[in-house]
Amino acid sequence: MRRLARFNATVELVRPRTLLVSPLSYCVGAAVADHRLDFTVLLGVIIHIAAPLAANAHNAVTDLVEDGKNVPGRLKLVETAGVETLQRIVYAGLGVMLALSLMISFAQSLLWIFSAFLVLGYSSPRLRLKGRPIIGMAVFSMAVTEPYIAGALLGESWWEIPQYDSHQPVVLGVFLFCWYFAKGIMKNVPDYEGDKAAGLRTIPALMSSKQSAAWAAAAATTLVYVAFPVLVLVSVIPDRLVFVGLMVLPAVGNMAGMVLARTPLEYNRVGQRDMYVSVVFLGLLLFGWRPSVGSALVGLCAVAVMVWSDVSGRDSRASRHLAGAEST
C-alpha cells in the first residue's frame, strides 16, 4: 500500500500533462528538417519526455517555500514520494538523455550539456534562474526551443547536420521562443503570492498586483497568437500553416478568463486550459508542416495523455492541492 502511495505521489509530481510540449516541439523540428518519423525520432521523443520529467522532479524538491504558499498539497506529495526518490529520478532522467543523445547524433550529444544545465539550473538553490525575470523566462522558453533545435538538426548520419536553403527554421524557432516566453509569464500569475513571499523576481511578481500581472500575461499571450498568422503571410513559413492561427480564438478566450479570475482555483483552471491550447497549437503546427497519419496520431496521443491526467487527477497542481482548496 505504501509503495502504491509513493508511486502515485511520484507520478503526480513529475506531472505527465506537462511533459508533452517538448516532444511535440521536437517532432516539429524533425518535420522542418524533413526527417521521417523513424526510430531516431522516437529516441528523441523519449529524450524530450525525460528532460521535463527530470525538471519537474527537481523543482518539486527545490520549490518547497513557494509551494507551501501556492500548492501546499504538493508538500505532502513530496513527503510521500521521498526526496531521495525524486533525486534519483532527476539523475536517471539525465542519464537516459545522455545515453540516447549519444545514439542519435553529435549535435544532440552537445545539446545534452545545454539541456542538463537547463534542467538543473532553472530552480537550483545556487543559480535559481527561475527567480530572474528575463533570464528565467528565457530558460523556461527553452522547454520548446531546445527540442525544436534538436529536431531541426537531425541528419541522416551521426555527424551530419542538414543544410537549409532558407531562413524557415530560424524564423519558426524565434517564434516558438517568443510564444513560450509569453506562456511563462502566464504560468507564473497563479503563483503570484507564493513567488513574492519566496523572493522570486518573476515578471508577474514584479507587478504591483496580481490583477495587473494577469493583464500583462493576457496581452503577451494575445500578441504571440495574433502574430503567428501574420508571420506566415509575411515570411518564408509555408502559407498552408496559416490555419494554425485559428488557435488565437481559444487562447484569447482563456486569457479573458485569467483577467476575470479572482480565486486560486480560477487561476489554476486558466493554466490547465492553457496547456491544452499549447499542445493543440503544436499538434496543428506539426500536422500542417507534415500532413500525415503519423503526425495526426502524435498530436492525438498528446491530447489523450492530458485528458487521462486530468480525469485521473494525476497532477500535483490538481485543484485539491491548491491553497484554500478545502474551502472551494
Structure, explained:
This protein is mostly helical and 328 residues long. Helices cover 71% and strands 0% of the residues. The chain is built from 14 helices and no strands. It is globular and about 55 Å long.
List the main descriptive attributes of the protein structure presented here:
328 residues; mainly alpha; globular
Could you give a short description of this structure?
The protein is an all-alpha fold and 328 residues long.
Contiguous helical run count: 14
Spatial separation of the terminal alpha carbons: 29 Å
Largest sheet: none
Mean pLDDT: 94
SSE inventory with pairings:
Elements: H1 2-14, H2 21-32, H3 39-62, H4 64-70, H5 73-81, H6 83-104, H7 106-121, H8 133-152, H9 168-188, H10 192-197, H11 210-234, H12 248-260, H13 264-289, H14 293-312
Helix pairs in contact: 1-5, 2-3, 2-8, 2-13, 3-6, 3-7, 3-8, 6-7, 7-8, 8-9, 9-11, 11-12, 12-13, 13-14
